User: What shape does this take?
Amino acid sequence: MELRDLKQIVYDGNIALVDRRLVILTWGNVSAIDRENGIVVIKPRGIDYSLLKPEDMSVTDMYGNDVGVNKYLPSVDLDIHLEIYRNFPGVQAIAHTHSTYATAWAHTGRNIPVFGTTHADHFFGEIPCTRQLTAEETASDYERNIGRVIVDKFRSIDPMQIPAVLVAGHGPFTWGSSVLACVEHSLILEELAKMAINTLRADPLAPSLPEYMLKKHYLRKYGEDAYFYQEVKD
Assistant: This one.
């Protein structure tokens, strides 16, 4: 893919976060990776979305080095994205927001439980929340350490089956096989967080969805014998 095309895709993803009311001001960012050429394109830091143009997107290598085409510095969250890309080889794009309900959950430091089939249709289990960083981790390599605690949380979780995480005290990150996918996951995550909060308001002791229902709803969409979507006929 040509660099200008990847910049356009990343720009469109960032604007999609605004259009879906998942970010305000300069909050949040979307990135994408070209693994073949070893480059990452990400929103630049501290610039209002309304002022951005596709050519403004920042480009680095896999270790955050400027590749010589940048007008602006990349997002301060770059090292978080890079840590995810280096450790989750199936990830092609990442979105970060401070959307209200998902961020509220991140403030609690708790996973989002699977309360219903809407959740199970999209994520194969609870949305995990990381631990808080230590004072030492915060003082040095802060953003990279956020990436590390995300990766740590997924040691026994398939990141492609649960393409989202809450960073404790911070907010949500989502990822996927494309920019469109990770933006969609951010939108779904926000709705699930809202549903979960309202569920607990209705009943603080609300039970989680039974495991067999979780498996049924997730696997009918993404399993080997999935049947949820229309079959494409010649």
